[in-house]
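Below is a complete specimen:
___
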Amino acid sequence: MIKVIITDDHPVVRSGLKQILEDYSDISVSGEAGNGSELINILLKDNFDVILLDISMPGRNGLDLLKDIKKIDSKISILILSIHPEEQYAIRALKLGASGYLTKNSAPKELVDAIRKVDKGEKYITASLAERIALNTINNLEMPAHDSLSDREMEVMCNLAKGKSIKIISEELSLSSKTISTYRERILEKMNMNTTAEIIRYALKEGLVE
């Protein structure tokens, strides 16, 4: 039996995932967490085989949690399940220790296949992501500018690219407006840009936002 814990700040999403997985006799949803702190506290008390982890959560996001999770249990498999397209976070998540990456519009069967695969200690990579990695390797392509950003900077950049105000982003990430403004300045500096409009154009060109 594969013991799974679902971490997502939306109860409806957790309920839906649980309902999907209950149809499979070899998978048991043995825990739920609404944020990173809840997840860490649960992991300190119980053992699981696979974590389904959302990236976008209040406070510390999923990418921030990866290192802490691995410190608690180096063998646990972490499957990122996100609304964000692969182009944004997939390679970054894998580098930080995730076992796989799926978007939330993936088919239920694909989710189940991914859970089973990462439970065996293998990586789950979609065909499109595998092609992207292969092309970068074969052609030795220059890494995109956004790869220089930290995980939090990347998150702020994508929110800015969606046209969200600093005030809205600060509320969603539970950070001060001053902190978000500082992140914005760092992003502009690292990416050699001057305005938010340039960030938006870049993100659309790279497929980071729809």
About this structure: Strands lie at 2-7, 27-33, 50-53, 77-82, 100-103. The chain has two domains: 2-136, 145-206.
